[in-house]
């Protein structure tokens, strides 16, 4: 799909495209054991691909216009190390993530969704190098200081190649913690001139991404790429979205959309798991109208955001009930 087609789908007049929620969260809700696994949800590409298809289907039934592949923590190096498979088998496994998503979209459309629904897009998830390190550094970007742009490009190249070869509609470069890694990914994207992408950063506060660089600086970098259709943030508390976008509004070129898909606002504790803060957290659905006023073209959720949250988001944005039957329609296996 070329950039013109994607931009038409992102037409603000029809409202933003709705991105799915936390794939790992949904998989864990059905009993999959992912915490502590160095491959996280990507392991299920090898052990339980049907669970991934089922989760994709539930998000589509809830109202998602975009589903992201289960490849955030997938890499050739990671698969060969932790699954004891060959590099070629690892390549095929990454590509299978796209196949699973495409098959699920095809089944969903065959099941006669509401007539106002757009044909869902498949976004190929590319996580940061820190996700492979499995030490939480995707939220600090500390490793970037010890790596060159060329080294980061070399590490990401096999994964991006697999996703493009498998036929994703666009690439989701997400939870990127540093300007240097973003620069590497934007440069790497030029090696795939027919591909489009969005670039989403992990952020530490309402002004800065995780490596302490200004979000406005990151948006300036993104604005120089003609292949990016959107730039924004993911896996941050919802309350940070508005100030972050405000801080960089003059750096974003006019035809570059905002993409936002924060987490639930809960805090992760290594020992006790997810913890709710003492004060009430506004939901992504409640905040979405404000983000739309800021010009968001894609809105969704990340960790701890379920199909039910996505259905609520769709109702808020579109004022209809087209995603409200997710719990019923999403039970069947595609």
From TrEMBL:
InterPro entries: BHMT-like (IPR017226), HCY_dom (IPR003726), HCY_dom_sf (IPR036589), Hcy_S-methyltransferase (IPR051486). PANTHER family: HOMOCYSTEINE S-METHYLTRANSFERASE-LIKE ISOFORM 1, ZGC:172121. Involved in the regulation of homocysteine metabolism. It holds the Pfam family S-methyl_trans. GO terms for molecular function: S-adenosylmethionine-homocysteine S-methyltransferase activity; zinc ion binding. Residues 5-317 form the Hcy-binding domain. Its cofactor is Zn(2+). Pathway: Amino-acid biosynthesis; L-methionine biosynthesis via de novo pathway; L-methionine from L-homocysteine (BhmT route): step 1/1. PROSITE patterns: HCY (PS50970). Homotetramer. It comes from Salvelinus namaycush (Lake trout). This is Homocysteine S-methyltransferase. It comes from the Eukaryota. Zn(2+) binds at residues 235, 302-303. Keywords: Metal-binding, Methyltransferase, Transferase, Zinc. The gene is zgc:172121. GO terms for biological process: methionine biosynthetic process; methylation; S-methylmethionine cycle. Binds 1 zinc ion per subunit.
């Amino acid at each position: 799909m070329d950039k013109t087609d994607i931009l038409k789908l992102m037409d603000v007049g029809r409202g933003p495209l709705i991105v799915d929620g936390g794939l790992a969260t949904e998989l864990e809700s059905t009993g999959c054991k992912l915490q502590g696994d160095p491959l996280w949800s990507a392991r299920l590409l090898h052990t339980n691909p049907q669970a991934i298809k089922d989760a994709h289907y539930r998000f589509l039934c809830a109202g998602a216009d975009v589903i992201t592949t289960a490849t955030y923590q997938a890499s050739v190096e990671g698969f060969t190390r932790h699954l004891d498979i060959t590099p070629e088998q690892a390549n095929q496994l990454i590509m299978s993530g796209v196949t699973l998503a495409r098959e699920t979209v095809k089944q969903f459309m065959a099941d006669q969704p509401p007539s106002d629904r757009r044909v869902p897009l498949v976004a190929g998830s590319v996580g940061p190098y820190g996700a492979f390190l499995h030490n939480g550094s995707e939220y600090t970007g500390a490793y970037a200081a010890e790596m060159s742009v060329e080294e980061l490009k070399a590490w990401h190249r096999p994964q991006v190649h697999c996703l493009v070869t498998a036929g994703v509609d666009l690439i989701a470069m997400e939870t990127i913690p540093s300007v240097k890694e973003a620069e590497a990914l934007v440069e790497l994207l030029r090696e795939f001139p027919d591909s489009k992408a969005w670039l989403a950063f992990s952020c530490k506060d309402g002004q800065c991404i995780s490596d302490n660089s200004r979000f406005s600086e990151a948006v300036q970098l993104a604005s120089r790429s003609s292949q990016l259709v959107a730039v924004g943030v993911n896996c941050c508390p919802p309350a940070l979205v508005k100030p972050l976008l405000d801080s960089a509004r003059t750096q974003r070129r006019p035809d570059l959309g905002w993409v936002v898909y924060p987490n639930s606002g809960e805090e992760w504790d290594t020992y006790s798991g997810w913890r709710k803060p003492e004060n009430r957290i506004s939901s992504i659905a409640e905040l979405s109208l404000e983000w739309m006023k800021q010009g968001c073209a894609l809105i969704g959720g990340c960790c701890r955001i379920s199909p039910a949250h996505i259905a609520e988001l769709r109702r808020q944005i579109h004022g209809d009930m087209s995603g409200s039957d997710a719990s019923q329609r999403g039970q069947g296996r595609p």
